[in-house]
Amino acid sequence: MLFPTTIAGSLPKPEWLAEPNKLWPTWRSSGDELQRAKRDATLLAVKVQEDAGIDIITEGEQARQHFVHGFLEKVDGIDFAHKVEMGIRKDRYKAMVPQVVSPLQLKGRVHAFEAQAARGHTRNKLKFTLPGPMTIIDTLSDSYYGDRVKMAFAFAELLNQEALALQADGVDMIQFDEPAFNVFMDEAADWGVKALERAAKGLTCATAVHICYGYGIKANTDWKETLGGEWRQYEQIFPAIDASPIQQVAIECRNSRVPLELLSLLKGKVVQAGVIDVASDEIETPEDVVATIEAVMKHVPKANITATTNCGMAPMHRDIAEAKLRALGTGARLAREKLG
Ligand code: ZN
User: Fold this and answer.
1) 174 secondary structure, DSSP code
2) In angstroms, what is the span from residue 210 Cα to ligand 1's centroid?
């Protein structure tokens, strides 16, 4: 089937699970009650995607507070009690982050609960997202390793353990999220992609990397204003990704200033093309979706195009996110009719 649909990863959390419209929301309950709420929200996320016609679904990242820290919570060697302020993505915004204080190791499984909950309730293909090593090390403070690359590879090993376990849970695709690649382009090409390969080692399910210009939060939209008329960051990192065994690349295309000809640098890859803008509440029409797919088709063979959202939808309003999911499903169907 042409133009299968997926989403970047996250969906908004229901207000009975966590504070709405926040990137780092507070949970509404704790203990067993929170666990039940996470499970219910996961099943709802599955259902909403299925109903919208999304082919490769996710668990909506309903069981993690934040896409990076959801992983870090299950890692030994990190001190969450003494957070420090850190500039993130080259000081684009400040956040209170935990510190690495001793050798890193997993306390156990990280995402088994929600992966198995989702797997048990859908026959669709299931994609699972994990933060990439470079993005992780740019979202916490180091008081132990004293070397960015060393710490990134330590995380890559832990990610690999969890990715292999998720595959055993029945996940069909592991996607690593590396928004930091668009900020540290030289490092991404130098060692970031290699760290990613370490994280994906031994996987036989599909593998993907998502690189983007971030959620539709103000810090990101302000940053984008400084990037000029053409966003060419992908140009510096695509050759290294193209040379890697990672099979798919998820990137933003809708309402973005990325020159789409850069996609031709990804010769052998499936391109998950963002056709839904997450930085705008305006709902795309199916025709908008078709138009973006058509533009991508000029640079990527149509058999290699998947339609997705530009980035995660975690901070959005639920009704808007759901309307955008329906636009994605309907738009991809229309694209199959018109361009198939
Ligand atoms: Zn993103």
Assistant:
1) E
2) 6
How far, in Å, is the centroid of ligand 1 from the Cα of 61?
A: 13
Q: What's this model's pTM, rounded to 2 decimal places?
A: 0.96
* pLDDT one-digit tens code per residue, 14-43: 999 999 888 889 999 999 999 999 999 999
32 Cα: distance to centroid of ligand 1 (angstroms): 31
What's the 73 CA to ligand 1 centre distance in angstroms?
21
Strand partners, 250: 210, 272
User: pLDDT tens digit string along 204-237?
Assistant: 999 999 998 877 788 888 888 888 888 898 999 9
Residue for token pair 């540290």: 184
Average pLDDT over residues 74-101: 91
For residue 86, the cross-strand partners are: 95
Average pLDDT of the segment spanning 311-324: 96
Task: Tell me how far apart the alpha carbons of residues 62 and 114 are, in angstroms, rounded to a whole number.
Answer: 8
Q: Is the dihedral of CA 114, 116, 120, 126 positive or negative?
A: positive
Ordered structural domains, the chain, with CATH: 31-339 (3.20.20.210)
